[in-house]
Write a structure and sequence with these properties.
The complex is a heterodimer. By secondary structure, chain A is α+β, with helices and mostly antiparallel strands. Helices cover 26% and strands 24% of the residues of chain A. Chain A has 18 helices and 26 strands. In chain A, helix 9 packs parallel to helix 17 and helix 16 crosses helix 17. Chain A is globular. Chain B is α+β, with helices and mostly antiparallel strands. Among the domains of chain B are: 48 residues, 2-Layer Sandwich (Uridine Diphospho-n-acetylenolpyruvylglucosamine Reductase, domain 2); 102 residues, 2-Layer Sandwich (Enolase-like, domain 1), CATH 3.30.390.50. Helices cover 31% and strands 19% of the residues of chain B. Chain B contains 13 helices and twelve strands. In chain B, the strands form three sheets. Chain B has a five-stranded antiparallel β-sheet with strand order 4-5-8-6-7. Chain B has a four-stranded antiparallel β-sheet with strand order 9-10-11-12, with helices on both faces. Chain B is globular. Chain B starts with a strand and ends with a helix. Classes of the chains: A alpha+beta, B alpha+beta. Chains A and B meet through helix 3 and helix 18 of A and helix 8 and helix 13 of B. The complex binds flavin-adenine dinucleotide and iron/sulfur cluster (SF4). Chain A: GO terms for molecular function: iron ion binding; oxidoreductase activity.
Chain lengths: 719, 330
């Protein structure tokens, strides 16, 4: 069967753009053929705090092919932040090369533009900087005295946690640590930017087209109408490409200065310093419970760092407010300024890290209560979001846990920690619950119908992006469903700011928002056809076109959340199960198998959805196994600076991952019943692994990642 | 990258002639280490002389009844050679634990011996590092040194040698054959090939300028029954060792009659555990004796601020490796 001739959503069809990708025909930002193209190379600071006192550009400028060396001395003046500690958003301006100040190690301090990439790269090394260095704040512990409440603060409380803890039979008070991590999509951040006398054009690898255009317009203080951003294919982002970053501004600044299009690619090494990071979080969790497992109190206090000039706060406590029923709850977030680059949203911001803390703590509590961790969670389930009193649009968490337990063989879990072994390996099982907001946002789309050879062909246009998730495919399926034509008669065109506006890819809202936007456009087209056709017996799209005597039709539609949506709390839910084997001596552990049960609305395409969850599980395993960016303690540079030392999992680390979807169509979430998937997959995976390590060894690991060194040291402690 | 000359040598004579003609020349094997370091601006050769295509890419029998491993042969084609697998399974196992299949296909035996430390300060040109820039200081000594040496370091440098292959070669007591630029040949015992940092950490080994490694000589087949290479690392592939142990045993009449034992990731050179080896000779291959040997092996370890864990981990790793080696064919 050729699945691509199928109609509608729900079929596991291959990616419609798959062939283009595997044959190299799909063009990514830096690959467009643009006439007169030149190349730029960013220069990074080699101190973490201080001032540039001198710059010698002579040698660089004298090199063959060099067209410009731009530093704060000759860079054009851009819009400036109007306050210190500017709260970062996806549309923030990105001033760069505006002063002699250095805020962190690796900050851009210059740019070389040359005829070839090699010339630019070589000359960039010849620009000499002299600095007046100051002692940087690079130590998390030492910075604690400077903690402050963020401007966009998200403290929350209900009831009284102290009283709830006093009432409890069993209590817990522990701190969980997640390290600095980096997004590291496969495709490097890149742009080909042309200033064009003010008609700005940017091929840029971005998740959100419209926001990128806003950042460009606001930073250069030009009219957004004159900015065109194109991003037809994006090789992953994980949040790092939500906003246009400084390299986008640098390339356009250079293009304006020399009046030629400029290509700028951020190197893998620079991806550590110039594209944001996930900051280190210390999360203190307190739990109180009655001896029957009923929660009496739950609190979550997060301490994180931000840069010295921008604020970003990861809402780690989000999950603790809403996941379990407890009358007494409080959540706080505090930030400390440090001489490190600004953090920004990374895959499942809040949930990925917050759930490591909460779901580890829940496991610890279950152990203290001598309860099965699944039973403990089910005991404290709630169908109403306790943080705002709204009912959940749907919540099948208990069902996920129960089905998972059955499929995984939870009954074979070693009842006592460190009680089961296979040769030199200690065997453990772990479980965790997952929840992730499933937002749905206002989205517009245009559909163009054409009658050709007695069939209707449709082209869908929207500024949405496909960041490797499968947007092209599910949108073709959606149009096919609503127009009732085969998928192969649908063409999807994305990633161009000339198309109708969408919220872009991020926050797991893409599928729900884009598909409903496409639906709205199709519904509008059918309505227009019916209006034009007048009285007719025609029902199919072809017949309607004929009845209306049209060979083409264009229609635009917009979908947005309704009152029903706003009256509910809308989340996806899931459960993770992991079996690990821990070496009894060396501290090495292996993930033997994983199961993820997800309830995340209608599955538009099982194949792309499966890929989303598996990818999330692998990234979650990365958090658990090895991913971390280490700060050099004296100088403040990152000592993990390539994929040779920033360890993401390899195939051999990942055992079989099974994914089971609970059938669900959440019509409150949106008309099509779709919820987000991408970020649910990563959520609480690390906790299920750490919980399994505890079950295997009796050692509780509260500090990610679980390197052999840390497990070994922990195991020795008792001995 | 800085501009450089590129010469493809077809014969050893061409390579040796080129290295004398060119200023600041370096030999190029598979380039998996050298080219990376050039991109990072750490290595700045003005000429590269490719020696990966020389005809010393063979594996042949040698005069002492062992094998000669050509320096130009790839790590993959060496580790997977049927005679290497049969006669030196310890070497094969160690080599196959390194890097990834892709890198092993490119990497040459000569280059593997000369790969440079993974110390992060060495890689970052803005950091102090005596190995990269003599006299600039050692950033790791009072810095991030969890991955650094516990044996034989000096205040000038606490780096480790990263190779897995070399740990097995140390246990097997190989020798290295080199051609000097004047055309003569010399052999270097493996234990003398790499050096300790002392006051000159910029020198990783005892090669003289311009010398070309042509082969690695292995003694008679060893440890074909009882061998094991244990590599502790953060992920299952594509990661350097936190520490590693190569162990080979010969057991006759219930006692150990021969033993080869070396550690990786603990010193500026592959670290031969001579005291532990001496102890085990004539002893029964029991866990208790292995533990005694391991204690002896780590007795003279000196730790830094962040790497103290390597001592107890090393002891456990040695015991485990010896146990696995012994139980392999027992
Ligand atoms: C990401 C990554 C992970 C890795 N993981 C591991 C690992 O886990 N374990 C491990 O052991 N290794 C690992 N390696 C290192 C790899 O084994 C070495 O890079 C490789 O063996 C070097 O061989 P080459 O032929 O590519 O050397 P090149 O890079 O070509 O050369 C290295 C050095 O040797 C010199 N040289 C080369 N041939 C000769 C010769 N015949 N005579 C004299 N000098 C010569 C060169 O001048 C240069 O100084 C890894 C490498 C990478 C990039
Ligand atoms: S340990 Fe050696 S390689 Fe590392 S910084 Fe010190 S001198 Fe350089």
């Amino acid at each position: 069967m050729n699945l691509n001739t199928s109609k509608g959503t729900g079929n596991p069809i291959d990616r419609v753009e798959g062939k283009l990708k595997v044959t190299g025909m799909a063009k990514y930002a830096s690959e467009f053929k643009v006439k007169n193209l030149v190349y730029a190379q960013g220069i990074n600071s080699t101190i973490a705090k201080g001032r540039i006192t001198a710059i010698d550009t002579a040698e660089a400028e004298a090199q063959p092919g060099v067209l410009a060396v731009i530093t704060y001395k000759n860079a054009e003046r851009l819009a400036q932040y109007d306050k210190d500690l500017h709260p970062l958003s996806t549309t923030s301006i990105q001033p760069v090369l505006q002063s002699d100040q250095v805020h962190y190690y690796g900050e851009y301090v210059g740019l070389v533009v040359a005829e070839t990439f090699e010339q630019a790269q070589y000359a960039a090394r010849l620009v000499k900087y002299t600095y007046a260095q100051e002692t940087p704040d690079i130590d998390f512990e030492a910075s604690k005295g400077k903690a402050y409440t963020p401007t966009e603060q998200s403290d929350y409380s209900r009831g009284n946690v102290a009283e709830g803890l006093a009432e409890a039979d069993v209590t817990l008070d522990e701190t969980y640590v997640t390290p600095i991590e980096h997004h590291h999509p496969m495709e490097l951040h890149a742009i080909i930017g042309s200033w064009n006398g003010g008609n700005v054009q940017a091929y840029a690898s971005q998740q959100m087209i419209d926001n990128a255009a806003t950042t460009i317009a606001d930073t250069f203080q030009i009219d957004k109408k004159n900015v065109r951003v194109m991003s037809p294919y994006v090789g992953g982002g994980f949040g790092s490409k939500l906003a246009a970053k400084q390299h986008v501004i640098l390339a356009l600044m250079a293009s304006k200065a020399i009046n030629r299009p400029v290509q700028l690619t951020v190197s893998r090494n620079q991806m550590f310093t110039n594209t944001n990071l996930r900051q280190r979080n210390e999360q203190r969790i307190k739990i109180g419970a009655k001896s029957d497992g009923t929660l009496t109190a739950l609190s979550h206090d997060t301490l994180s760092h931000t840069s010295t000039y921008e604020q970003y706060q990861e809402a780690c406590g989000t999950v603790t407010k809403m996941l379990y029923k407890t009358p007494n709850n409080s959540v706080t977030h505090r930030l400390m300024p440090m001489n490190l680059q600004s953090p920004f949203a990374m895959r499942a911001p809040g949930e990925a890290t917050g759930s490591f803390a909460l779901e580890s703590a829940m496991d610890e509590m279950a152990f203290k209560l001598n309860m099965d961790p699944i039973a403990f969670r089910i005991k404290n389930d709630t169908q109403v979001d306790p943080s705002n009193g709204k009912p959940f649009s749907s919540r099948l968490l208990n069902e996920c846990l129960r089905l998972g337990a059955k499929e995984f063989g939870w009954e074979n879990r070693p009842q006592k920690p460190a009680s089961k072994s296979e040769g030199n390996w200690l065997v453990g099982y772990g479980v965790s619950a997952a929840s992730r907001r499933a937002p749905y946002m206002k989205t517009s789309a245009k559909v163009i119908l054409e009658l050709k050879n007695d069939a209707v062909w449709a082209t869908l246009q929207m500024d949405a992006t496909d960041i490797g998730t499968g947007s092209y495919t599910i949108l073709a399926q959606t149009v096919s469903e609503y127009l009732d034509i085969p998928v192969e008669q649908v063409d999807v065109e994305l990633g161009d700011s000339e198309y109708p506006v969408t919220p872009g890819s991020g926050g797991s809202w893409g599928a729900a928002s884009f598909a409903n936007g496409a639906r709205a456009a199709c519904e509008q087209a059918l309505k227009d056809l019916k209006d034009k056709a007048g009285e007719t017996a025609a029902t199919t799209t072809v017949a309607l076109m004929k009845a209306a005597q049209l060979s083409t039709l264009e229609a635009e539609g917009t979908a947005e959340p309704d009152e029903e949506y706003k009256a509910h709390s809308v989340f996806s839910f899931g459960a993770n199960f992991t079996e690990v084997w821990v070496d009894k001596d060396t501290g090495v552990f292996r993930i033997k198998r994983m199961l993820n049960v997800a309830s995340c609305g209608k599955i538009l395409n099982p194949k792309t959805a499966f890929g989303q969850i598996i990818g999330g599980c692998v990234m979650g395993a990365g958090m658990a196994i090895a991913e971390r960016t280490e700060v050099e303690p004296n100088f403040g540079n990152f000592i993990t600076r390539s994929f040779a030392d920033y360890h993401v999992p390899v195939n051999l680390d990942m055992a079989n991952i099974d994914v089971v979807y609970l059938p669900e169509e959440d019509k409150i979430a949106n008309k099509m019943g779709i919820k987000g998937i991408g970020e649910l997959g990563i959520t609480s995976v690390a906790a299920s692994i750490a919980n399994a390590v505890f079950n295997a060894t009796g050692k509780r690991m509260r500090d990610l990642p679980l390197t052999p060194e840390k497990i070994f040291v922990k195991k020795e402690e008792a001995a | 990258m800085r501009p450089f000359n590129y010469i493809e040598a077809k014969t050893k004579q061409q390579a040796l002639a080129a290295v004398q003609e060119q200023e600041h020349a370096k030999y190029l094997g598979g380039g998996t280490n050298l080219v990376d370091l050039m991109k990072e601006d750490v290595e700045r050769p003005e000429a590269l002389i490719k020696v990966a295509d020389l005809d010393n890419d063979t594996i042949t029998s040698n005069a002492v009844g062992g094998l000669t491993l050509g320096a130009a042969r790839s790590n993959a084609a060496t580790a997977n050679h049927p005679e290497v697998r049969k006669q030196y399974p310890l070497l094969s196992m160690a080599m196959l634990s390194a890097a990834t299949a892709q890198i092993r296909n490119m990497a040459t035996n000569g280059g593997n011996l000369l790969q440079r430390t993974r110390c992060p300060y060495f890689f970052e040109t803005s950091m102090p590092c005596n190995k990269r820039e003599p006299g600039s200081g050692c950033g790791a000594l009072d810095g991030a040194n969890a991955q650094h040496a516990i044996f034989g370091w000096s205040k000038s440098c606490v780096a480790t040698h990263p190779s897995d292959m070399c740990v097995a070669l140390a246990a097997l007591e190989a020798t290295v054959t080199v051609q000097t630029p004047d055309g003569s040949e010399r052999t270097i015992d493996f234990s003398d090939f790499h050096r300790l940092p002392g006051k000159q950490p910029e020198l990783d080994n005892t090669l003289e300028p311009g010398e070309l490694i042509t082969a690695i000589e292995l003694p008679k087949p060893q440890f074909t029954q009882h061998y094991h290479y244990l590599k502790i690392r953060e992920r299952s592939s594509y990661a350097f060792a936190i520490l590693s142990v190569a162990a080979g045993l010969k057991v006759r009449g219930g006692v150990v009659t021969d033993v080869g034992l070396a550690m990786g990731g603990v010193a500026h050179k592959p670290w031969k555990l001579t005291a532990a080896e001496d102890y085990l000779i004539g002893k029964e291959p029991t866990t208790k004796n292995f533990e005694e040997a391991a204690q002896l092996a780590l007795a003279d370890a000196r730790t830094l601020e962040h790497n103290a864990y390597k001592v107890p981990m090393g002891i456990k790793a040695i015991v485990r490796t010896l146990e696995q080696a012994y139980s392999k064919e027992a």
